[in-house]
Amino acid sequence: MAAVDTKFVDEVNSSKSFNAAACMNCGVCTAVCPMELDLLPRRLFRYAVIGVEEKILEHRETIFSCLMCRMCEQNCPAGVRISENVRILRGYINRTVFGLSRK
Ligand code: SF4
Ligand code: SF4
């Protein structure tokens, strides 16, 4: 069973622009995504909100395969800032996995 990491929750959610919790898992983003990303945003955003860091790290290739085209965002009925949330998750992965410092 996946563990909840409170440090991860605090760090990711400390950014005021991170609003993944607004996602209601409707699936519109998956339907319009040119990369057919099924995990991102909805499932990975939920993992981020509840603090399952290992799922974020496990699926980091998916997070980095997003084109940041914002097709999903333009069609999201809940106003989720998808590309900004992805950028924040990438920053977390860069610091945690690759040892890059925050700019
Ligand atoms: S379109 Fe928006 S609300 Fe719907 S699943 Fe995607 S991110 Fe969540
Ligand atoms: S921004 Fe990323 S997740 Fe959204 S539609 Fe484009 S490639 Fe897919």
What would you note in describing this structure?
This protein has seven helices and no strands. It has 103 residues and is mainly alpha-helical. The longest helix is centred in the last third of the chain and has 15 residues, at 82-96. The structure holds iron/sulfur cluster (2 copies). One iron/sulfur cluster binds next to helix 6 and helix 7.
Short précis:
The chain has 103 residues and is an all-alpha fold.
List keywords for this structure.
103 residues, mainly alpha, 7 helices, 52% helix, 0% strand, globular, binds iron/sulfur cluster
Low-confidence stretches: none
Q: Roughly what percent helix?
A: 40-55%
Distinct ligands: iron/sulfur cluster
> Helices and strands, in N-to-C order?
HHHHHHH
Number of helices: 7
- Broad structural category: mainly alpha
The global form is globular
Radius of gyration: 13 Å
Between the first and last Cα atoms, what is the distance in angstroms? 34 Å
Beta-strand fraction estimate = under 5%
Mean of pLDDT: 91
The total of beta strands comes to 0
Largest sheet: none
Explain the layout of strands and helices:
Layout lengths: L5 H8 L14 H5 L9 H9 L2 H6 L1 H6 L5 H5 L6 H15 L7
The structure holds iron/sulfur cluster (2 copies).
